[in-house]
Amino acid sequence: MYDRILIRFGDLTLKGKNQNDFIRQLYKMLEEKLAGLPVVLEKKHDHAYVLLNGYDYNLVIDRLNLVAGIYSYSLVKKIARDLEVLKVEALNYVNELVTKPTTFKIETKRADKSFPLQSPAISKEISSYILKNNKLVKVDVHNPELEIRIEVRSDGIYLFNGQIRGLGGYPTGIAGKGLLMLSGGIDSPVAGFLAMKQGIKIECIHFESTPLTSIESAQKVIDLVKKMAKYAPGNKILLHMVPFKNMHMALLDKVPESYNITIMRRMMYRIATKVAEKNNDLVLINGESVGQVASQTLQSMATINEVTNIPVIRPLATYDKVDIIALSRKIDAFNISIKPFEDCCTVYVPKAPATAPKAYRARHYEEAFDFNTLVEEAVNNTKSIWVSTDTDLDLSMYGLEVGEAIAEYNKTK
Ligand code: ATP
Ligand code: MG
Predict the structure, then answer these.
(1) Which of the ligands is closest to the CA of residue 186?
(2) Average pLDDT over residues 88-111
């Protein structure tokens, strides 16, 4: 019965140029995500339609749910601008939706004032016609179970009911570019999704310590980026794979156990800051959540954050784990994240990590070794790879270390 989907845009409290940028990027993303489907995108100034051409609307909705900046959408039937046609079609519409006694209400919006009847009069005409011809329905203007919406526009009349919430947020890309610190865990992919939803185009950085950690833990990260890529412009995300083994070994060797995680994370921030600067990423993004583990107490965050001066965005800072897991499932990352391979933060976990590490002590312990050289070496040996939704890189096929495997794979592309 529906022939189109009405798409309502998100934050249109934006003004002027920002609003134009919003709409332009939203349309770009919509076109990308709908590509390949036999539907037509009809662009209006502050809303859009997807003409279904008989195609299954559920499959279109799956695609719309990849596009940030959509506030909501509705399944719509467009009919001729004629009161008699409207009566018949509205009745058909109700007949199809109603199978048991139901209260309803008609809500009319006359966007085109040249239509002869005013909104309340249209609502009245249509509801009395429906009441006369469908014995299951009763009017309830305050608390209806079914609200039929009629919108009179210059090119036709639109009939719909209900609104399905879209992703919300801002079209991915309009806010600029950030660097997501991506582990193989549950949190950081969700943080990346939320950043994209807020308009940030992301690149990812991962610190891999093979062979101290397994090759599968690096593969997990590639697989997680594949899952995130469906939300990204071009369905692809640049992943920077940092060889972290030498740094990792130096930390295990030179730093007191209780400060190991703190200093490891300071090193990660230092390297990420340099990689961000090289790639024009304006912010770092990570999956830290206040209080979750020892390295995420406020004192700990302060001590770790000290080593960088670019902004760090922590989308999950105040999230409950259950809500993070729900989002992880929603983006289809959960089953990858829970695969039990060790990463650099789970291997050699100190028995008693400092929960309130002091910056001056961290600085003192860092004097024990020449970490700047290790930072430079890690940055210089970082290998980058574009990961798309259909990237087929299987690291275990190469029998090489991770960076070399990526370099070989890139040659084939
Ligand atoms: P996650 O579920 O994302 O792994 P977590 O709760 O396990 O998070 P930590 O392991 O302390 O927390 O890591 C906190 C954040 O630091 C991660 O969310 C991620 O952003 C970043 N991070 C941790 N390990 C790595 C890594 N090997 N490479 C890149 N980023 C990392
Ligand atoms: Mg982790």
Answers:
(1) 1
(2) 95
